[in-house]
Design brief:
- The structure is a single chain.
- The protein is an all-alpha fold.
- Helices cover 81% and strands 0% of the residues.
- α2 crosses α3 and α4 (78-98) runs antiparallel to α5 (106-133).
- The chain is globular, with a radius of gyration of 18 Å.
Length: 134
C-alpha cells in the first residue's frame, strides 16, 4: 500500500501541497472509519484530559507532518521518498530511547542497523545508477 501511495502521488501532478495532504488524510480517515465500524462499531470514550493531547497530536504530527511530506513527494525521487519512509520507524525507536528512557533491546538495535544499512545501500546504489546513466 505504501508503494501504491507513492506511485499515485507521483502520477497526480495536478494535486499538490495542502490539497494532496487533505485528500490523503480524508481518504485514510474514511478507510479507517469503515474498517473500525465493521470491526467494533463506532462507540468510543475519550476522557476529557486526553482530548487536548489527542488534538495536538492530530494537528501537529498528522496535519503538519502530512502536509510537509505530501507537498515534497512531487519534488523528490521515489527512491528518496521510500528511504525517508523507512527512517520514520528508526526515529521512533531513537526518540523513545532518548526522550522516554525506554530500553533498546538487541532486536530493536538490529532493526535500526538494518534500516540504516538499507537506506545507505539505496542511496549509494541510486547515485551509482545516476553516474552510470549521466
Amino acid at each position: 500500500m505504501y508503494s501504491l501511495m507513492v506511485i499515485c502521488n507521483k502520477k497526480a501532478k495536478d494535486i499538490a501541497g495542502l490539497e494532496n495532504a487533505a485528500l490523503q488524510l480524508l481518504t485514510g480517515f474514511l478507510t479507517v472509519a469503515v474498517f473500525v465500524g465493521l470491526k467494533q462499531g463506532y462507540a468510543m470514550e475519550i476522557p476529557a484530559e486526553s482530548l487536548a493531547p489527542v488534538c495536538i497530536l492530530g494537528l501537529l504530527n498528522t496535519g503538519i507532518g502530512c502536509y510537509l511530506y505530501f507537498s515534497s513527494i512531487g519534488n523528490l525521487s521515489v527512491q528518496t521518498v521510500a528511504i525517508c519512509g523507512y527512517l520514520e520507524p528508526l526515529s521512533a525507536v531513537f526518540f523513545s530511547t532518548v526522550l522516554l528512557k525506554e530500553a533498546m533491546l538487541p532486536v530493536q538495535f538490529l532493526g535500526a542497523v538494518l534500516i540504516l544499512g538499507g537506506a545507505m545501500f539505496g542511496e549509494l546504489m541510486g547515485q551509482k545508477h545516476l553516474s552510470v546513466r549521466g
